[in-house]
Design brief:
By secondary structure, the chain is mostly helical. It has one domain (12-41). It has 2 helices and no strands. The longest helix has 12 residues, at 13-24. It is globular, with a radius of gyration of 11 Å.
Amino acid sequence: MSNIPTRCVCLNLVLESYLQSQVASRRYASVSEVIRSACAS
């Protein structure tokens, strides 16, 4: 996966909390996975 481009983004506290809650619920393994899923929708 070293050839995958990376991006840095700034998130407000509401979005950060949502991302963390999705990982904590074990629906996703990482914040990156949540974001990839959202972008694919």
